[in-house]
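During the practical work, I worked with a single protein chain and the tokens that describe its fold, as given directly below.
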Amino acid sequence: MWNKEKSVRFTHFMVRVFYLILTAVAAISVIIPVAVKDYGSLAFYVIPFYISVPVGYIALVCLDKLLIHIKKGIVFDYKNVKLLRLFSWLCFFVCAVTILFVAVVILRMYLDTVGAINVYFITIADWYYSVFAFCVAVAELFVGVVVRVVKNIFETAIKIKEENELTI
């Protein structure tokens, strides 16, 4: 039967699977530009990812520690609030990086269209990248906001818990 303990263990397992997935994707993203031998056109796609990989590892560590605390029964604690706060700021940071690079790609496409620069490697893939990356940035922003709400709920619950402990 499915219970809270199994759910926490499964979630913890999935966080550790994401460590492996992030490592594999980071390794593959190093190999692809070497295989393609076209660093110029791939730079606008790979640079934001390289900036986001360490942030992703930090976010996974936050989730890992949070789940360890939950396994130990440490739920309404300021350590968890700090982890949730950090996680939300990491989401906002990656969102900002993604939006910045989408803006750079769109600016490059605009300047090439008006003839201000002569760039030959702008393709339809740049448009697809821009739309996809913008959608990812919105998702990152949404996750950051949701985690922020959960953090605020935890803070309020901790205050209520402390007040209840003082009245007894």
About this structure: The chain is about 85% helix and 0% strand. The CA atoms of residues 146 and 167 lie 32 Å apart. The radius of gyration is 21 Å.
